[in-house]
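Progress against Task 2.4 (sequence-to-structure conversion) is shown through the following example record, which the project officer requested during the mid-term review.
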Amino acid sequence: MNIKIITVGKIKEKFMRDAIDEYAKRLSRYCKLDIVELQDEKTPDNASEKEEDAIKEKEGVKIRGHIKDSDYVIALDLKGKHLTSEEFSEKIETLGIEGKSSIVFIIGGSLGISAETLKRADYKMAFSKMTFPHQLFRIMLLEQIYRAFRIMKGEPYHK
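Structure tokens generated for the chain above:
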């Protein structure tokens, strides 16, 4: 299975990079992982809703440029469906059984994901009603993907 994470924004902190590298290494026995980091657009202070939508759409164009027609796209969105780790594992396993071997996760920029990009998503998922820093969220997503594969394979993992 191919897993791609498309994310807006770069990670500068070494400790976060180390965590990402660790989960990438762990995941290498279950899937091919590709992380695409896109440059975020600068948001002016006191930007209007129209300006924010334009910024999200600029980022959305970049995101969609990395998605193939055959990809199954999961957008991380606050309005998405909440899943347990077991349900998430089952979702990934079912996609594999259905022949969807390329799954793309989208983590938007600080303003979120554009409406056009959300339309392209096959599924919208939320981790929490809380807001998390995008850098930390990437680590959380990688951990949950790793946990999903462990659950799928019946391998032990802390609960």
